[in-house]
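Recall the central idea of this unit: under ordinary conditions, the amino acid sequence of a chain determines the structure it adopts. In this exercise we apply that idea directly, starting from the sequence alone.
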Amino acid sequence: MMKHLCKFGFMPNYTWWVYHGEAYRPREEVVRRRLEAFDGDGGVEGWLGDYEDAMFAERPPDVEQEDEEELEPSAKAFLAMLESAQKFLHEKTTVSQLDAIGHLLGLKSQHNMTRACFDAMMSIIGDLLPEGHHLLSSLYESTRLLRALKMPYEQIHCCPKGCVLFRKEHKDAKYCPKCKSSRYVEVDKGDGKKEQNEGIPMKVLRHLPIIPRLQWLFMSEESVK
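Accordingly, the structure predicted from this sequence is:
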């Protein structure tokens, strides 16, 4: 596939970067809106600038301006992130709302916090911040803000010993057709027998579809080279 793309390209005569969900604006109007207010290392201004260059590429002369209300979900999600990155957490700090959420979600991942623990932590921090702050109050709101960065994936049940995937002709099977291992966690009924808990698979494969991965790879004119 890589050789084919290098030799023949994404599509014939594709010279204007316009078919990846970008909103069309003349290049002179883009002039990357750097987030000058947020200085320091480790912030979001750098990669948001790269993302914006990819999402808002120059418009070819034969393409009409799109209605902003018809932006695709990924573009809307990016604009929400950009707004969050330009919003101070409160009036006494230069930390953006997006930076704060990013650090807190990183802490959650590092220490394997539960949803309830994270929500309680956000509530306590919110009570300690000045009135009118912009810290979000829950894990749901925080992850929703970062949805533009998510790569979609498909969850596929598989044999705990790696024999088969429970899909296609095996999608309804409850036991591995090769080793007879249970697809689901088995629980003791109390009479010496076990039954499957069909809500908990023994093993799950997370498959990243190729099309979204290629779309991300070809999102930027610079990175695609």
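Residues 2-152+208-217 form one domain.
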